[in-house]
Amino acid sequence: MSGTSRLSTRARTATSVLAAAGLVGAALTALPAWAGGNADALSVQYRTSATGATADQAEPWFQVTNTGSTTVPLSTVTVRYYFRADAAGTTYRFACSWAVKGCANITGTFGTLANPTATADRYLEIGFTAGAGSLAPGQSTGDMQLRFYRSDWQTLRQSDDYSFNGSQTSYASWDKVTLQKSGAVVWGTAPGGSTPTPTPTSTSTPTPTPTQTTGPVGAALFDDFSYTSSSDAAIAQHGWTVKSGQGGPGVSGATWSPQDVTFVADGATNKVMNLRLTTDGTAAGTKETEIQTAARKFKNGTYAARVRFDDTPTGGPDGDHVNQTFFTFTPLNAPMDLSYSEQDFEYLPNGGWGETQNIMYETSWETYNPDPWNAVNAHGQQYGSLDGWHDLQITIDNSNITYFIDGNQVAQHGEPYLPETPQWIDFNHWLIDLAGQTSSTSRSYDEQVDYVYFAKDTVLTPAQVRAQVAAYRTAGTSFTDTVPAS
């Protein structure tokens, strides 16, 4: 991707990701107004993070709370949000940005009302898979950060939507949505006081569960980064490009420095790649690093890397808004280009984009428009330090993009975020802005990479990835690439 496109993506990311900041694990502070009595009582709390009369996307966020006395399987529960379509032929798409129960366990489908009103002729129905589990008495689903948008990417109007309340920016009980348990309404009032029709049975063919391999994989890339320097001829021969010059992402006027991509000993026999970021608090005094595959030939399969993140500088004051990454992407050839895609691990050890603490983002991109800004993405996030070595993994099949850290699943995103075209693999280490620390004392941060691995069209578990890497090392293989060109 060009520097300009990459800068637009990163510089604008705050618009989409910061809407969720500070809300993880938000608690219900008061008992819902409708609580009590019924053994199967349930209630819905609502808020929105898109408050305008018009918006790029509607963002109804929900919590469902069990206010009864019996445990309720969430697979028997649906919630309906009612709205007025912008035009008769307008279609919409649903997305889940983040959820305590996991976005993979939440579904969203659209329906049409048999008896439309002035404020509603459609609804978004939220459902749960069996993987969402059950709610015991007094329990809540926690945050469900949901959104929907027009399929043609145009601005939507929500001020005339029955279920919308732009002033409700904190969770509170909301009876202009309905909740159904096993098809019967147990919360809320539908538009016009009508009873929602039962959810139709889906006739679509279910997506098959991907098969995980247990034996040797086929086409694969493995690189142990056993090079001498960034000018080592083997780097280009093995299909890597080390970035130089200027351009995004990050601070305008900063320089990408190949000399700061080095290969250092880590133990008696192993080498690791070191990506150093250095700054003195000025753009001219900031040097960043990036290495990327020259070929776009990676799409479905398993991506993995062992990466060491760095919370503190080697000298000088701490606090710079650095970004330490492992990601794969395609270029944005035009605004809202549907062939664009990107899947990111981005670690911000000192915060940034409005965050003030350590945070890791896993972001899956469908597309975006740089001006006026409109992003179509979903993300996971975790607060806390990740200083030190970590195993990062992304698996992509025809159903999901799944992110793992140290063998634990941390995020999963489905359509519309799956990549449509082959991608590059990339690591970079850059400075988001100059606002984190303004000292003129030079300081450096190090992001290190032990290896990178890709298995084409194969879904591997984290344990299987470790076994494949161990097999390469046992055989003395420091590099192999059998992934065919696209």
From TrEMBL:
- What are the boundaries of the signal sequence? 1-35
Does the keyword section mention Signal?
A: yes
- Give the matching Gene3D superfamilies: 2.60.120.200, Endoglucanase-like
Zinc recorded as keyword: no
The Gene Ontology biological process terms listed for this entry are:
carbohydrate metabolic process
Segments carrying the region annotation (Disordered) are 189-214
**Domain of life, per the record?**
Bacteria
What Gene Ontology molecular-function terms does this entry list?
Answer: cellulose binding; hydrolase activity, hydrolyzing O-glycosyl compounds
| Domain spans labelled GH16 | 200-460
Keywords carried by this UniProt record: Signal
Q: Which residues form the CBM3 domain?
A: 38-192
InterPro entries, A to Z: Beta-glucanase-like, CBM2/CBM3_carb-bd_dom_sf, CBM3, CBM3_sf, ConA-like_dom_sf
Q: Could you tell me what this protein is called?
A: Cellulose binding domain-containing protein
Species source reads: Luteimicrobium subarcticum
